[in-house]
TrEMBL record:
Name of the protein this chain belongs to: Major allergen I polypeptide chain 1
Major subcellular location class: secreted
Any one GO molecular function term: steroid binding
A GO cellular-component term linked to this record: extracellular region
Compartment(s) where it occurs, according to its Swiss-Prot or TrEMBL record: Secreted
Similarity comment: Belongs to the secretoglobin family.
Protein origin, superkingdom: Eukaryota
Organism: Mustela putorius furo
Keywords: Secreted, Signal
SUPFAM superfamilies on file: Uteroglobin-like
Gene3D superfamilies attached to this UniProt entry: 1.20.920.50
């Protein structure tokens, strides 16, 4: 996995385990899953629910397209497996 992908997973893990609030875990789970496995359009629509500003949406699309270009299918599977372990934690 690329360093950027590892950093993304680390940040997601820290966010998920820091609060222990199941409400944020379910929201973050959906967002991160779309970021890893969804289409750019699906991810941008999700981001738009939080911040519907042109520059934010353009950056979200650019970041998603970058991830899609860099992640292999194995990277995606590994990322989802790590996240599933985090989601199954009693802290989440």
């Amino acid at each position: 996995m690329k360093p950027a992908g590892a950093l993304l997973l680390l940040c997601a893990a820290l966010l998920l385990i820091s609060g222990g609030d199941c409400k944020i875990c379910s929201s973050v789970k959906h967002d991160v899953t779309l970021f890893i496995k969804g289409t750019p359009d699906e991810y941008v629509q999700q981001v738009a629910q939080y911040r519907n500003e042109t520059i934010i949406l353009e950056n979200a699309r650019s970041l998603k397209e970058c991830v899609d270009a860099k992640f292999t299918e194995d990277d995606r599977t590994n990322a989802i497996n790590v996240l599933n372990k985090i989601y199954s934690s009693p802290l989440c």
